[in-house]
Amino acid sequence: MADADLSTEVDALEHALASIEAVSDLESKRSEIVELEKQASAPDLWDDQENAQKVTSRLSHLQSEVERVEKLRARIDDLSVLIELAEEEDDADSRAEAEREIAALRVAVDALEVRTLLSGEYDERDALVTIRAEAGGVDASDFSEKLMRMYMRWAERHGYGTEVYDTSYAEEAGIKSATFAIKAPFAYGTLSVEQGTHRLVRISPFDNQGRRQTSFAGVEVLPVTEEADHVDIPEADVRVDVFRSSGPGGQSVNTTDSAVRLTHVPTGIVVSCQNEKSQLQNKVAAMKVLQSKLLEKARKDREAELNALKGDGGNSWGNQMRSYVLHPYQMVKDLRTDQETGNTDAVFDGEIDDFIEAGIRWRKNSESE
After folding, report:
1. Which residues carry the post-translational modification N5-methylglutamine, per the record (predicted)?
2. How confident is the model over 51-62, as pLDDT tens digits?
3. What domains lie within the chain, and their CATH numbers?
């Protein structure tokens, strides 16, 4: 790549980062950081543990956001110096290093640009993910477990925390359903584009005749509720059932009836939790899941009212959204964005950032039409 081309690439990166800085409102974030640092240094901060956790969590999040942009700015500035050096001394090694850094910066700036597209009401929240086996029998259950591992591996690759609330195992293989949280800033906004029906096509390992099977799994993504959400759930509206936790193949993993199932009588919403050690802990965790589902129901009800006023039927982009084909060829393809890859193993191992970023851009474009 010629030096002039390198400079053009840097100019493009400069322009893209400047747009991100403008949208991110860094000065406002820096002012909030100063205020939060004062609160965090108060000697009585931890007298109110809930507020202390909110303060420290928000402070850490903002510092990370600002630092991420500042580091990219510093790298672009250093890149300009490196290109000048390559030009002045006609240094091939410096030029090659600059080309590698341009490629890396392009990926980093693109990822940060996608983050600026997350501006929904709950986008900054942790994500509550539920996966359910749909049509396809044992293949659907096995596929659901593969999807759960895919998202867990994605979180692990990014250093995000996870917490499994409930897993219902299928009799032969895989899972009937699972609910888990992914704990990271913007986890909900990021993963919400994964919501919908996922389809797997393969030679079934459970079919004696080796026939090709198509199976389906549904993915639901909700924002984790916070105290400020005020989801009012009268005690009389919730039926509480306790049962014995179980593992794969129906084996007992707990000799006491510590698992909890909550039924919200007015809506019929049912949630359960069996991964904590005590019945009380499971009830608290299940209540969090129920609150998230009721919060999402209220959001959807509001959205339906708006759509009715607009005269359209709402959008249905969250239904059929991705195909995973393992036979007769290898291909994972998003049906909304046309994003695709032939490296199916990598996808099932959590390499789904390209699909997520394409989905976020697609959604933003759809909303603006």
Report:
1. 251
2. 888 888 788 878
3. 3-116 (1.20.58.410), 127-221+318-368 (3.30.70.1660), 235-310 (3.30.160.20)
